[in-house]
Design goal:
The chain has helices at 11-21, 70-90, 126-143, 172-191, 199-211, 251-264, 284-299, 303-328, 335-341, 344-360; strands spanning 35-38, 42-47, 52-57, 60-61, 64-65, 99-102, 109-113, 153-158, 164-168, 220-224, 232-234, 239-241, 246-250. The longest helix is centred in the C-terminal third of the chain and has 26 residues, at 303-328. It folds into two domains: 11-113, Phosphorylase Kinase, domain 1 (2-Layer Sandwich), CATH 3.30.200; 126-360, Aminoglycoside 3'-phosphotransferase, Chain: A, domain 2. Helices cover 45% and strands 15% of the residues. The protein is α+β, with helices and mostly antiparallel strands.
Length: 363
């Protein structure tokens, strides 16, 4: 097993180095290793007695060797810790309460509270998926009631003096207006594309939605962009979040990201290397029910909230369709693009689906 280290160590030796570093009991033999599984970037191990999860970065991810980057790893793990603490203030127990990390060329790892075994999507009824989605929608709404503990916009990174901050130093309204302009430009290019769809209908919808996008009512919050099912622990009691991608941005935009992904991304990307492991095309009813529940939990009885979310989901659809249109016109796709989006034929097939979804998007 290839783990990120400069030392010539076995998996057991590296695990024990981490456990020793944390003052925990070492594992005596390889058969005692409790492998929870692996994500795209880390292998995960259960430290059963202490109910902790130890994660060690892979040396190879997506068929490419990982280069040790102290600053990037420290920023990633510090951002995760910050989000866990913030999230648990919004809803106690939604994320691991304990989280520590250590970054060095010889040994890098994170260690966090074990949240329990997930039942996954495969053992969920649509009613249960809707319940989980509603819980998560209410949680994302609760995040909006907390002030951002950091300055800036975008992904969290470590600044020159060691503080966490957003990657961009911009006024929120100016940023959202610039982003809105980009959405309009992307829509215009789709309208000018050679593909067949009801252009007049999409233009009319775009004019209505873009002109009504929520700008003045939004504020910067600390939230989480990555809520894919692989990063949700579906316990019998509740849905819990691990391995986040923390962002400083408007709550409604990131909420729309959840809705769009569950409605129109995960199952359509099932044939890509990035998402094939999840077999999401087998669980479309659960994904759709989760999105419906999320909308209910996030918007409640607020028509203003529901309208703002509906508009943001449309914009996610626009930018995803445009991304596919760009990829179709690139020759050839590079390795990373193929891993994330599939072959050019798969990309074009998905583009046609997204154009149809734009055409049929509810008013």
């Amino acid at each position: 097993m290839k783990l990120l280290t400069t030392e010539n160590l076995t998996e057991l030796e590296l695990l024990n180095n981490a456990l020793r570093n944390e003052g925990l009991k070492e594992i005596s033999k390889e058969t005692e290793i409790n492998r929870l599984g692996e994500g795209a970037w880390h292998h995960a191990y259960l430290i059963e007695k202490e109910q902790l999860v130890l994660r060690i970065p892979k040396r190879v991810a997506y068929d490419k060797e990982v280069v040790f980057n102290r600053k990037a790893l420290t920023s990633e793990y510090a951002a995760t810790k910050a989000f866990y603490q913030h999230a648990n203030r919004a809803k106690e127990g939604v994320c691991p309460k304990q989280f520590k990390f250590f970054v060095d060329e010889k040994l890098t790892y994170t260690i966090e509270s074990y949240l329990g075994k997930s039942i996954g999507l495969q053992r969920q009824t649509t009613d249960l998926s809707r319940r989980y989605g509603k819980e998560l929608g209410a949680f994302f709404l609760a995040l909006e009631n907390l002030n951002s503990p950091y300055k800036g916009i975008g992904h969290l990174e470590i600044g020159q003096t060691g503080e966490l901050k957003g990657e961009l130093d911009m006024d929120l309204k100016a940023f959202v207006l610039e982003e809105t302009k980009e959405y309009q430009e992307e829509l215009n290019k789709l309208i000018d594309s050679p593909y067949e769809f009801d252009r007049a209908k999409v233009v009319k919808a775009g004019e209505s939605f873009i002109s009504r996008r929520s700008i003045n009512d939004e504020k910067i919050i600390l939230t989480n962009q990555d809520t894919s099912p692989e990063n949700i622990i579906y316990t019998k009691r509740a849905a819990k979040i691990i391995d986040p991608y923390p962002q400083l941005y408007t709550g409604v935009s990131i909420a729309a990201n959840y809705v769009f992904n569950y409605q129109a991304l995960f199952h359509l990307f099932h044939n890509t290397k990035r998402y094939c492991k999840g077999n999401y095309h087998l669980y479309i009813p659960q994904l759709i029910a989760s999105a419906e529940g999320f909308i209910e939990g996030y918007t409640g009885s607020s028509k203003q909230k529901r309208d703002a979310l509906h508009i943001e989901v449309f914009l996610k659809l626009v930018t995803m369709a445009y991304t596919h249109y760009q990829l179709v016109n690139e020759a050839p796709l590079d390795r990373e693009q193929i891993i994330r989006f599939g072959t050019k034929e798969q990309v074009e097939g998905r583009l046609r689906i997204y154009l149809k979804k734009l055409e049929e998007y509810p008013k």
